[in-house]
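I hope you will forgive my troubling you with a question about protein structure. I am sending you one protein, given as its amino acid sequence and as whole-number tokens for its backbone shapes. Thank you for your consideration; the sequence and its tokens are set out here:
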Amino acid sequence: MSDTQAPIGPNDAIKVTKIETFVLKNSWVFVKISTDAGITGWGEMLKDDAKACAAGALEVADYLVGKDPRPVTHHWQAIHRGAFYRGGPIKTAISSGIDMALWDIAGKCYGVPVYKLLGGPTRDRVRVYGTVSEETGVNAMKVGPSSSRKAFKYAESPMFVEEVAERFKALRDKHGSGVDIGVDFHGAVQPTTAILLMKALEPFHPWFYEEVVQALNVDVMAELAQKTHIPLATGERIFTKWGFREILEKRAATILQPDVCYAGGITELKIIAGMAEAYYTPMAPHNPQGPCSLAASLQVAGFIPNFLAQERGDNEYMEILAKPLPPVTEGHRPLPTEPGLGITIDEDKLMDQVGEPHPYGPSFDPDDGSVVDW
């Protein structure tokens, strides 16, 4: 049976036969799970530590091969709790990619999109942000605290802060109040500078401040959150329900941005969204990766009630997909209607992209050579 044939029945037997991984030259990492029914599932993992994620996913075959892929939550628990050391970015990324691929298989088995298996739809279309365009109707974007250079000093000068504010004001004047503009500090700004920039930008009504500091010290983020009326957003470097618990309890952010390739997959984002709903906190999933990442995030948007917007939801990924996603119109992308994640990977196109991933490395202060965040 192929992915395009009729779905199998709930009592029909199906078993996982193989797990494969693919590392692309741009550092995207894909996992493919095959079954004896001819149905395959695709997922993505963290692009940082790409080779480690790819190798780790192959080790899951010792547990998963020979098993029915459809009890996805059971498999998430077994993979997570079967390890002595739990959590961490690489282990959770491995679980995320496997989880995504299993949901893709489950949806294809039953002939429905994943969001329908999980109680959706909660909406008909998904607001996206990325490149503001009259053609697509996208009216939301995100920028860094822009100046002649990045903000990496422990305490930036008044001239630097003024330049950032002037540039953001010019962007606001260009787009007007009808465009939402978030500011991504990228966890690279020190608290002493972050508070100066937050106050300087407030008059121009940012949509949110993202990763104003690294999420390693939640108390510092919570302290900064109390000093501004602009919503704080974070989540791309936080994983599992346990990581987001402290963020919510301390009100360190009022917008959560978990990454489906890193935070625990579709299974875990469902739980994180439920926790967030109890705090009246919306979800705006992080997405710097490829088509599985976007497709899985769209599935999440289709079954959670507290959804805000999807990052880079206007990407088309034609270099990987066999056919395009439903197009973005009026700033929204329609929910996928095809089974599973709702996309088809073109394996020939994928293999053309496979290769040595580009390296990540440190950044340095040009004035004294010290290491800075990037």
